[in-house]
Amino acid sequence: MNDFALWPVLAGAAAFFVVGALWYGVIFGKAWQKAAGITDEQVQSGNMLVIFGLTFLFEMLIAMVLWHLLARTNPAPHVIMMMSVGFAIGVMIPAIGINYLYLRKTFTHFMIDAGHFLVGMAAMGGVFVLFR
C-alpha cells in the first residue's frame, strides 16, 4: 500500500458522497429538513455546486487521512472496517454531538447526521478493503 494512492482515495470519497446523496435525498431527506428546520425554499436557495464541491473535497480529506493510516499500518481487511467505523464512532460522531449540544439541535437531527457519518465511513472502509 502506498501512503497516498489517488484511485482508492477518490473511490472512497465517492462512496461516502453517494451514501450522502442517498441519505439526504431518498432515505432521510424530508426528515432531515424537518429536524434541521430548513424549508424547501432554503434548500433550493443554496449554491449546490459550492456545497457539493466542498462536501466532496472534505470527504477526500477524510479519505486521504484514513488511507494514509491504513497504508502505514497495513491492517487485515476486518481491521480496515473496524478502523473506518471506529473513526466514525470514536471521533466524528462525538464531534458532531458536541456541536449539536451547543447549537441546541434535536436528537433526531443528530441521529440522522450521525448515521450518515457511520454508514459513509463504512462504505469508505469497504472500498478501501477492495483496493487493498
From TrEMBL:
Keywords annotated in UniProt: Membrane, Transmembrane, Transmembrane helix
Superkingdom per UniProt: Bacteria
Pfam assignment, any one: DUF1761
Segments crossing the lipid bilayer: 6-27, 48-67, 79-103, 110-131
Name of the protein this chain belongs to: DUF1761 domain-containing protein
Organism expressing this protein natively: Erythrobacter ani
Organism lineage: Bacteria, Pseudomonadati, Pseudomonadota, Alphaproteobacteria, Sphingomonadales
